[in-house]
Amino acid sequence: MVLETQYPPFLEWLFLWSGSTPGALWIWLAGVGAVALGALIFSFIALTARYGPHKAGDVIYKVLASSVNDIFCISPRRVFALARLAVQESIRRRVLVGFGVFVVILAFAGWFLDPGKTDPAKLYLSFVLTSTSYLVLLLALLLSAFSLPADIQNRTIYTIVTKPVRPSEVVLGRTLGFSAIGTALLFLMGVGSYGFVSRTLDHTHELTEEDLLPMEPMEVAADEGGEAGKQGRTGFTTGHRHEVQLDADGNGETKPAQNHTHRVTAVQRDGRTEYVVGPPLGQLKARVPVYGKLSFKDRSGNPTDKGINVGNEWTYRSYIEGATQAAATWRFNNLRKQDFPDGMTLEMTIRVFRTYKGDINRGIGGTITLKNPNKPEVKHVLKNFVANEFSVDRHVIPLKLTTEDNRTIDVFENLVDDGELDIELTCLDASQFFGMAQPDVYLLKREGSPWLNFAKGYVGIWLQMVLITTFGVMWSTFLNGAVAMLATIATMIGGFFVQFLTRLSLNQEYGGGTFESLIRIVKQDNVMTPLEETYTNTVAMWLDKIERVPLWVVAHLLPDLPAMSDVNYVSSGFDISPDLLLIHITTALGYVVPVLIAGFLFFKVREVAK
Amino acid sequence: MNRRSLIRKLTYLSLIVILLLPLSYYSQPATVAVGNEKARAGGRLAQLRDQFQLGQANLGEIDPAGETIKLATLGLRGVAANILWEKANEAKKTEDWTGLQATLDQLAKLQPNYISVWRFQAWNVSYNISVEWDDYHDRYFWVKEGIKFLRRGSRYNQMEPRLVFDTGWFTGNKIGVADERVQFRRLFREDDDPEFPNHRSRPQNRRDNWLVGQEFFEQAVSLVDDRGASIRSMNPLTFFNQPGMSQINYAHGLEEDGTFEEKAKVAWQEANRRWTDFGNRELNTTDGFTIRLNDLDLTRGKVQDAVAKLDALAPEARNKIREEKKAKLPEADRKVLATPVETRSMQEARQAYDAEMKLFVTHQEVADRVKGEKADEAKKLAEEILYLDGMARAIDRDRGTINFTYWQTRCRMEETDSALEGRRLLYQAKQLYDDAALPEAREAYERGFAEWRKTFKAFPDMIEDGIGSDDLVDSIKGYAETLKKLDEPFPEDFILKDVLVGYRKRNPATPLPGMPAPDIQPPPTPGH
Question: Which of B133, B141, B192 sits opposite A389 (nearest CB)?
């Protein structure tokens, strides 16, 4: 799985100030403080222009003082009543149609999805998670943006605000109500999606006597001994087939294809042997990995920050040269014997770059070496391997290893030192390269539950939904329905493109900002050539520079919605760690609380709520 | 208030109906004859759609999923397509192959009749993505994915010969010319994927990538010949020669795989027949001629005949005009023309060339000298010469573009018994060398070279041309290796020395057995 951003443990992420990067809490405090201060200054200036400075200060003080009271004296009972009202209103507005749309999407998904692709599980999981996400966000948007403005326009809001209800309770009640209905929908969609994925991926293959040939004695592994079995290929189903090797009794497991295998069992029926191919195994996974920290050595064996760039535009992976001292080492921490009672499983995905063709029939070889981090001389060459690109290659590290001179090495006693272990990879073929990134090699702690992981993936979507609902309610406290919807859409789209906006504000995007791009589009210039130094171009560049300031502010205020989505983890079969989940929840909370307070303040100063 | 609202609604409704009436009249669908009812051409829009073949059914199969996506984008198809192209590029960059496949599917559904989507992305998959994989099985899978993508594109664009042509090209050339061609061709023969390439209905001996590619090329040609499809900006030479080239490649592939004698002979004979058929095909050139590549000698003969006739009408006129022109040349030009060619300086050579150009006598000038009743005949002859000469030049140029003469001679040469035997012996020699049967290998090499000597005697152009004999150089190197291992020197009077001499002229940096060491050092090869 490609992980361009790897998060540290939750507490480290929240509090630790490492180098120039402060913890998330300090960034949040600074951001919220800056916005609050900016809002205060702006309000003071606006009110001063209208009433003079004394009166302005007085108004601000009174609003703030009563707001503190409103926030801290919220009645859960009233909030619950208002939330229930919001749920009833949503049901009246036929929000359940959204679920109907989802069912229709699933019903016709087969038109758009081809189970014959390289990794159908990834395709189907991505599809259901993404379509659910878009649908729920759309519903959250429509519900939250129109509710309050419609009540204000129909004057039904007076039936609420004339009762002893605080404005903060109105805002919180609506948000909770809409979130509750969104949660219910999301739950239904989640159950439906999991059923859809499991059913669609389920398949079997035909395997008959005619598909099998007796195995040559040489093909039976020496350590297996015994009688030679059969080998052959299964029938073609959903765009793939499996190679199969069976033992003398006709039982065995197929070779992997499309990232799964099948168990094959021989059954005697009417004097004939029939082969039953079982359901797919290992299609839905939730690997719990232990990641290490990657470091490199160059071809002379000296430590270096990165490996070699072999000319890829995407610099995610670094490469090491074969048959030199170049190596990639992963240092694993906090390893405990009780986590690996049956030995360690090392999984890896290594890229290959050939500078010459070499032997086409043979892959590029490498070596895995286990090293004691504090005593480099204590090491053990685990095995030589042939790189298997774009698929997970599994190697087992037994707890007891035997050296060439028949000594026994205990992994946890001799190699793991203070919970740390180094695993070094080298490439054996001269002038050929291995490419790797930090998440490409990991120790498999255990296989988690796929359905639980699927549910955790839905938590990310749920957080996105809650955020959009909160923003929708906030905008609707002072804008009319259509405008509130536009503002929420803008928030949502901006949220999905935060990374892009950030790059744009830092002038890291090819083609420049709005004005430079406009010139390039009109003149059909490519994005790589610098613009000529003409008067118009200079003005455009300056306008872009000016534009970048508000863009930077916006990019840093908007929530990074894709970062909250864990579709990549679920579809690639990796467990979403509790740390990651906590980081997402905390991030969402970091937005929800100030946005709710802002919504409450906007609503409070409106005539209708007074 | 209610009454006003009702009137307003009725007005809108009336306007809608009024607008729909002409639209309904113009868009009446065409109908076919049923019973006594005659067929009708339909409204104007239906007729125009039919005339320009714009109806979806004219283009190819209708994909309900694609139509749904198009409608679901609510007029924002362009934006959606743009986003998907970006997404496809990003997926390729970040090596997300599943994502890329899914995006390409969506893109194709969104723009099923935009040919570039199919051609560009199929190329991307078969050529660019396949090489990202190290294992040749994976590479083959991705080459196949690209071909399947093209096949799907052809279903939705049944009048598009370029897609069928590309399918043939990928099946033939990508599988048959890649570095992994031996493995690819084997996988292709063994492939029984029901979606590709329809092997189940194909006899075992036709399961060759070149022959399957040839079938696609023939389908593409048939689309143009029989259904009037256009090849648009494709070069007709390289479009129509592919069925023949596939046969040549098939015959060559057979020999590379070690199949000789009757099967290879028949394959080369078929290649010769197809190449001759291609040479007889009428082709339109960009300068307005309709030519046949086999007509070069015929057309040149016609030019000579017409020139002779013209000169007969005005005897000595050509020389006279030249002398007159020469007399009018400046003294410096005459002097430089009088200077022997080998002693002219660069400047003088240029000046002499310009002077020669001034002395050139056109056929029209000769015709103008014919007076009286034969003047019209002379004028017509001059025009005919001009036309035929242009045509001969066009044929010559187009023959050069696709190396027509070389392939023609090669087909004729390869089908001879001596060439077939020569190839068989050299193949056998290589096998013997690999099996360490060195004396037998040497003998097979020598007998093979003797057969080739015989062959080149009948086809001397193939040595002069070079390309025809270049593939023998590997065998000669193998022979030299064999001799080296037998502690024997490479013979001074090697029977195919002329092949080595010709090869050295074209590749001055390549070391060759029995030849002096090259003066130029070859560039370093990566990895060695």
Answer: B133
Residue A347, classed as helix, strand or coil, is strand
Please write down the long-range contacts of B481-487, taking CB distance under 8 Å and 24 or more positions apart.
B481/B433, B482/B429, B482/B433, B482/B438, B482/B441, B482/B442, B482/B445, B483/B442, B485/B438, B486/B438, B486/B439, B486/B442
For residues A27 and A13, the answer to whether their CB atoms sit within 8 Å is no
pTM for the whole structure = 0.84
Both structure tokens of A402? 């035997």
Torsional class of A34: left (φ above 0), alpha (ψ -120 to 50), beta (otherwise): alpha
Q: Is A535 on the interface with B (CB under 8 A)?
A: no
Q: Which residues of A touch B109 (CB under 8 A)?
A: 112
C-beta atoms surrounding A450 within 10 Å: 21
Q: B129-133: long-range contacts (C-beta < 8 A, 24 or more apart)?
A: B129/B92, B129/B97, B129/B100, B132/B95, B133/A389, B133/A390
> Position A235: which residue type?
G
Residues B356-365, mean pLDDT to the nearest whole number: 94
What is the three-class DSSP state of A444?
A: strand
Note whether A360 contacts B64, CB cutoff 8 Å: no
Q: Are A356 and B133 within 8 A, CB to CB? A: no
Residue A302 has pLDDT above 50, yes or no: yes
Tens-digit pLDDT profile for residues A456-492: 999 999 999 999 999 999 999 999 889 999 999 999 9
**What pLDDT score does B527 carry?**
47
Optimal mutation site among A101, A111, A429, interface B, most CBs of chain B within 10 A = A111
> Is residue A123 within 8 angstroms of chain B, CB to CB?
yes
> Which positions in chain B touch A122 (Cβ < 8 Å)?
98
Could you report the per-residue pLDDT of B415-461, keeping only the tens digit for each?
A: 999 999 999 999 999 999 999 999 999 999 999 999 999 999 999 88
Cite the DSSP H helix spans in A113-166: 120-153, 158-161
Tell which residue, A462, A472, A468, A465, has the closest CA to residue A599: A472
Residue from the list A239, A314, A389 with its beta carbon closest to the beta carbon of B134:
A389
B86 touches chain A (CB under 8 A): no
Whether the CB of A235 is below 8 Å from some CB of chain B: the reply is no
Which of A520, A588, A535 shows the shortest CA–CA distance to A559?
A588
**Does pLDDT of B171 surpass 60?**
yes
Whole-number Cα distances in Å, B286 to A601, B234, B393: 76, 12, 13
Asked if A205 and A242 touch (Cβ cutoff 8 Å), the reply is yes
Cis peptide before B197 (omega within 30 of 0): yes
**CA closest to B72 among chain A residues:** A105
Residues 388-427, chain A: which have Cβ within 8 Å of B? Answer: 388-390
Residues of B within 8 A of A123 (CB-CB) are 98, 101-102
Q: Hey, is the C-beta of B200 within 8 angstroms of any chain A C-beta? A: no
Q: Residues A550, A38: contact at Cβ < 8 Å?
A: no
DSSP state of B241: T
B414: amino acid identity, one letter? E
| Token pair in block for residue A32 | 């919220």
End-to-end Cα separation, chain B, in angstroms: 93
What is the total residue count of chain A? Answer: 610
ipTM of the modeled complex: 0.85
When scoring A316, A390, A568 by the number of chain B Cβ atoms within 10 A, the one with the most, hence best to mutate, is A390
The Cα of B147 is separated from the nearest Cα of chain A by a number of Å equal to: 14
Using H for helix, E for strand and C for coil, what is the string for B277-319?
HHHCCCEECCCCCEECHHHHHHHHHHHHHHHHHHHHHCCCHHH
Q: Which residues 204-223 in chain A show a CB within 8 A of chain B? A: none
**B199 pLDDT above the threshold of 80:** no
Buried b (16+ CB within 10 A) or exposed e, A518-530: ebbeeeebeeeee
CA B416 vs CA B252, B423, B453: distances in Å: 14, 11, 13
Choose among A123, A313, A357: nearest Cβ to B98: A123
